[in-house]
Amino acid sequence: MAIVNNTLVMESTTINLLLATAQPETMGLQDFYRKYALLHGYFSIVVCLFGFVANIFNIVVLTRPNMITPTNVILTWLAVADMFTMLDYFPFALHFYIFKDSDLTFLETRGYGWMCYLLFHANFSVLCHSVAIWLTIALATFRFMCIWFPTWGPQYCTVRRAKHVIGIIIGSVIILCIPNCIINSWTTVGKNETNIMEGAYVHVDKMNKMIQAIIFKILPCFALACLTILLVTAMHRAYKKRMRLRNQGRNEESDRHGEHNRTTGMLLAVVVLFLLTEMPQGILTIMSLVQDYYFINVYMPLGDVLDIMALCNNAINFVLYSTMSKQFRDTFVSQFCCCCPKKRPGWMRMKIIKSKTEQNGNFVTTHSQV
To answer: How far apart are alpha carbons 95 and 41 in whole angstroms?
Structure first.
């Protein structure tokens, strides 16, 4: 949206006009957009509520002293970015979808305060989502280096360097989002300055589109795809090494490698889900750069679907951590389930006792549980 002649005007109100003039071959998408928009708000608030609570759990668990590792530091800030995304999207879904006036179309409002909030949402959501994307890339890079270069990788991928990378990502994304903030709050203050302002607007708008398309969409998708392949290859190499260790009878080292592989598998799942979420947006962004037709007739009608996919991706990490990491589960239980008895009444803790018996002059070791 933009401020023109001191009047706040939402650019989003033109969406329905553009959809009304859509090409006949994409009318199915326009009908889908209008029908899904009726449900999008309800789906969004459910996902946001779950995701907000889940990411708070993630932050609390991942910041415990026994959980401090370079990858967990990155996962913590990824949870922070996802939490703020949920916190920002919740009132947006409530007002512009569920509680909107019946005589207004979606994304339209009469309240000046809500118009200002929509302006904030247009900038803040891009900032949080872009930070989350590049944190995921940093996460995959750190894990790949630790697996592919087991000798010097852990020496370089330290907690301190992870914090530095996080600071660089957040600072860089803030700077790169400045053109987006300018475009979303554009003002024209005088009739004589119209041509100059329009010329400047065109240049800033082109810069913003290039940044959004290349740095926040195309490049991350390419990087995530490459890192996914590299992580799968690294896991395969680690699995073969684990099997060699087991065949050599070095079971303790084999189990240690197995734990590393499970951690890598969990992080790989996080990266793949991000890739599946961002790839459709990246493809549509490339198509929209080639021809405006795709942006108006394809990208915009699918905008709500892309939003709910991103929200689900932001909320699902807690489920991944809980199901794929025993250390995360144990830490979560110790922090949030303190009232649960460690020993259930009527149950006895079992332990294995080794004993030796003599049979025909030979000692035989037996195991029993008590």
So the answer is: 9
Quick check: 263 and 62 in contact, CB under 8 A?
A: no
Please report, to the nearest 10 degrees, the dihedral formed by the alpha carbons of residues 310, 312, 317, 318 taken in order: 150
Lookup: tokens for 34: 């209008």
355 phi and psi, to 5 degrees? -140, 150
Look up the pTM and report it. Answer: 0.79
Q: Using the 8-state DSSP alphabet, how is residue 211 labeled?
A: I
* Pairing outcome for strands 362-369 and 7-9: unpaired
Is-contact 311 48, C-beta < 8 A? yes
Q: 199: which 2 tokens?
A: 């010329």
Q: What is the pLDDT of residues 330-370, one digit of tens each?
A: 899 888 876 555 544 444 444 444 555 555 555 445 544 44
Sequence-ordered strand ranges (E) for the chain: 2-4, 7-9, 187-188, 352-359, 362-369
Give CA–CA dist 272/276, Å, rounded.
6
Q: How many CB atoms lie within 10 A of CB 54?
A: 22
Which residue in 12, 97, 33, 30 sits closest to 305, CA to CA? 33
Interacting residues of 161 by C-beta distance below 8 A, sequence separation 6+: 70
